[in-house]
Amino acid sequence: MEYFFTEQQKMIRDLARRLAEEKVLPVRAELDEKEEFPWEIMKEIAAADLLRVFVPEEYDGLGGGCLDLCLVVEELSRVCSAVAISYAANALGTSALIHFGSDAQKKKFLPQVASGQRLAAFALTEAGAGSDAGAIKTTARRENGQFILNGAKQFITNGGDAEIYLVVALTDPNKGSRGASCILVEKDTPGFTFGKKEKKMGLRASSTRELVFRNCAVPEENLIGKEGMGFIITLKTLDRSRPGVGAQALGIAQGALEAAVDYARERVQFGHPVIAQQAVAHMLADMATSVEAARLLVYAAARTIDSGAKDYTEEAGMAKVFASDVAMKVTTDAVQVFGGAGYMRDYPVEKFMRDAKITQIYEGTNQTIRNAIALELRKRRGRRA
Length: 385
Hints:
Elements lengths: L6 H18 L3 H7 L4 H9 L18 H12 L3 H20 L2 H13 L4 E4 L15 E5 L2 E12 L6 E7 L9 E7 L5 E6 L10 E12 L3 E2 L5 H37 L1 E2 L2 E2 L4 H29 L6 H26 L10 H9 L8 H19 L1
Parallel strand pairs: 1-4
Antiparallel strand pairs: 2-3, 3-7, 4-5, 5-8, 6-7, 9-10
């Protein structure tokens, strides 16, 4: 299909695809098996200037929008979504800084992210605050021109490897979610340590760790936006990032579809390639149709954000929910097309299936996002009435 990309977007997509096939594919299985953060790949991504895609031009970036970022995430995920999420989480950790940070904060940190000198992470989730983001307990008390952080964050992507953390904490616990603020914390700050690296079903090469704050003192100029804006910043950041999760799911589904089609052409049963069997052919046709539908929705949501729309909760949520459900269905069907071989680590589809599941869970479970979409529908009907 024709998606009417700009020349820069075509260049970004082709560059990401070539890097994924030439640099990531040869080490994909090894990264998954060893569960190692893909530092060498991230260096290759930085050298290709792909870390500049989402950074504004005035801070050494390429000034790309949500769609540009989605194209990179999709192409990386088509080969290895653990690498893709290491890249995307860096963009997520930078998003609040880009859209709510001061010029001084941007000048200090964004060029470092754009060059690949430092990676970023976004720290919201806690043991008691998953889908219920308003239930966070980590505090940041003002004291002598500093914020003193205490508490812990859980399941933080790029945790331990990133050097810049955008942390959501309560600066006024008495106000609940209205007392939350977003504070930038650098890795080597005294009082800031990490828990163990989590062992996961999928995305094994991606780092997921607990962040621990014990009387961690941060300069008050590290406050992002205004005090008390943390929950608003969080909601806007997640809305903006959800098409990126959709792009990750899309890339996973595309990679699994391609592997299934190739295998079905080669595998002979009953004297014919299995793709000639109508049951398999129809399964592949449905997989391809679902992938293309997900692509259309993800790109449309990203373009809506890039248009400058003020409210895109519904569109972003739909893109994430639909694409992640497609990824889970397509990867499951891809394993079925492979038969017993698909269950073996010698073939890539078992990894695609493991990696797909998390896209239905993080950055808002699909059940929580469906609630948000339904709420937007209720508001819309009320306005039209």
